[in-house]
Design a protein that fits this description.
46% of the residues lie in helices and 14% in strands. It has 476 residues and is an alpha/beta fold. It folds into four domains: 125 residues, Response regulator (Rossmann fold, 3-Layer(aba) Sandwich); 168 residues, 3-Layer(aba) Sandwich (Rossmann fold); 81 residues, Helicase, Ruva Protein, domain 3 (Orthogonal Bundle); 46 residues, Orthogonal Bundle (Arc Repressor Mutant, subunit A), CATH 1.10.10.60. It has a five-stranded parallel beta sheet with strand order 2-1-3-4-5, sandwiched between helices. The chain has a five-stranded parallel beta sheet with strand order 9-12-15-8-16. The chain has a two-stranded antiparallel ribbon with strand order 6-7. It is flat. 32% of the residues are buried. Bound molecules: adenosine-5'-triphosphate and magnesium ion (MG). Adenosine-5'-triphosphate binds next to β7, α8 and α16.
Length: 476
């Protein structure tokens, strides 16, 4: 297995040939509307092309460097929704704006879910289309910056990496979420990258230069949590010997990330609901309303809907927070990310710990790919960090991973060290005996790695030089 360091792959592209004059493709079976849009957008200075059907549009996109598609939803043959799916599959970075005759929320939601950039209802105002087009093109370079074609596609967004199409969908969603003011609920098992996603939403939005405040609602005792979030005045309770600013006030103009929102006590849920609805709160021991402008992102590893049904979480708050939802897929749903993350963390920790670990033996990789990762990326990261610390050669070996499941496999097999040589009645020639064992194991290691010496050395816990020395000693 060979990897390029991910950093090398992700230089941003600014040399797009269409950067100066983006080309917009208009798709509509209605000729008059098509022409109307062509004239309107050409007047705005865009280069414009058009197609009367979805089929023609797709053919055109294979030939032309299209920056944006504006398409009608209802068309004979390939309709707008199908066209959208095809474009997302083949030209993932091209934003699509859909136009429909009916203000149907269902279609709008379905379109957004499939990755439409935006959605316009006929009749639309000229100003409206102008604005939406401008916004889509303006945000394009940002949304595009994570896409970088390599032989082995790796996608990057903010501090997140992936190779998985499932995660790619989320990567495509985040820049658009970032440019909206709505609350977001990020769900997912522990260690799936919920906080990274929250940071990406903040970093890619207009609030990026303002504070990003994190609070773990499950990590603070209930009686302290309120003053932590909303602050308190002097003398608000015994021990409050001075006024304290709460995190909502600190996060003003910025973003607050409420981690483990499911742990928020009922009393504070009421107070939070007020912040969400009225953008104001009072601090403990005070009656003065404090106005804030804070974007709220929340995360949970529980099924919040179940918590609502069980009466532990307020339904109204749930709907307010859940305006946009992201579900971070667990690592077992994106196995293609395991080798990528392994190499990424290997590079990170060998640099950090000043070690020359460069790779991982194919056996160790196999063990990782079979492992279920209940703790997801965070667990994988911990495993690699620990293995790098323990590594004695430039390859990570199965032994140093210390996976719970792998250990079980190992003990089921017989360990080479459980073999007990017998001395025999006449004794033995120790040198000769050890040479024999050494030679046999060198050969076996080479067989197992198909002659790849660095890897064979790794399996035997030897560095390459000492492995090579032994090979020459036995003329292998
Ligand atoms: N896509 C990714 N690319 C790079 N690193 C990642 C990715 N996803 C997660 N990580 C790493 O995994 C670790 C866990 O991520 P994060 O803290 O965002 O997860 P979480 O879902 O908030 O976890 P928890 O539920 O335990 O709080 C972090 O150290 C992060 O660097
Ligand atoms: Mg977290």
């Amino acid at each position: 297995m060979s990897f390029t360091h991910p950093e090398d792959l992700f230089t941003e592209t600014t040399d797009s040939p269409s950067a100066a004059r983006p080309k917009i493709l208009i798709v509509d079976d209605d000729q008059s509307l098509r022409e109307f849009l062509e004239i309107l957008l050409a007047k705005e200075g865009y280069s414009v092309c058009s197609a009367p059907s979805g089929q023609m549009a797709l053919r055109l996109m294979d030939r032309e460097n299209v920056s944006l598609v504006v398409s009608d939803v209802r068309m004979p043959g390939i309709d707008g929704m199908t066209l959208l799916k095809e474009i997302k599959a083949k030209h993932a970075d091209v934003p699509v704006i859909l136009i429909t005759a009916f203000a149907s929320l269902d279609t709008a939601m379905a379109a957004m879910k499939e990755g439409a950039w935006d959605y316009l209802t006929k009749p639309f105002r000229i100003e409206e289309i102008r604005e939406v087009v401008e916004k889509a093109l303006e945000t394009r370079p940002k949304a595009q910056s994570f896409i970088r074609d390599t032989a082995d596609k790796i996608y990057k967004l903010d501090n997140m990496l992936t190779k998985s199409p499932v995660m790619l969908k989320i990567f495509q969603l985040i820049p658009r979420i970032a440019s909206s003011p709505s609350s977001v609920l990020i769900s997912g098992e522990s260690g799936t990258g919920k906080e990274l996603a929250a940071r990406a939403i903040h970093n890619l939005g207009v609030r990026k230069d303002k504070p990003f405040v994190v609070i773990n609602c499950g990590g603070i005792p209930e009686n302290l949590l309120e003053s932590e979030l909303f602050g308190h005045s002097r003398g608000a309770f015994t021990g409050a010997d001075r006024k304290k600013q709460g995190l909502f006030a600190i996060a003003d103009q910025g973003t607050i990330f409420l981690d483990e929102i499911g742990e928020l006590p009922m009393t504070l849920q009421v107070k939070l609901l007020r912040v969400v609805q009225q953008k104001s709160f009072t601090s403990l021991g005070d009656t003065k309303e404090i106005k804030v402008d804070v974007r709220i992102l929340a995360a949970t590893n529980r099924d919040l809907e179940k918590e609502v049904i069980a009466g532990r979480f307020r339904e109204d708050l749930y709907y307010r927070l859940n305006v946009i939802q992201i579900r971070m897929p667990p690592l077992r749903e994106r196995p293609e990310d395991i080798p990528l993350m392994v190499q990424y963390f290997l590079d990170k920790y060998s640099k950090e710990q000043n070690k020359a670990v460069q790779g991982i033996s194919s056996f160790a990789m196999e063990a990782l790919q079979k492992y279920s990762f209940p703790g997801n990326v965070r667990e994988l990261e911990n495993i690699i960090e620990r293995s790098v610390a323990l590594a004695t050669s430039n390859l990570l070996l199965p032994e140093s991973l210390s996976l719970a499941e792998f250990k079980q496999q190992k003990t089921a097999e017989s360990s080479p060290f459980s073999y007990e040589p017998c001395l025999g009645p006449e004794g033995l020639d120790l040198e000769q005996f050890l040479s024999h064992i050494e030679k046999t194991l060198l050969k076996k290691a080479l067989e197992r790695t198909n002659g790849v010496k660095t890897e064979a050395a790794g399996i035997l816990g030897l560095n390459f030089r000492s492995f090579r020395y032994r090979l020459s000693k036995y003329a292998l």
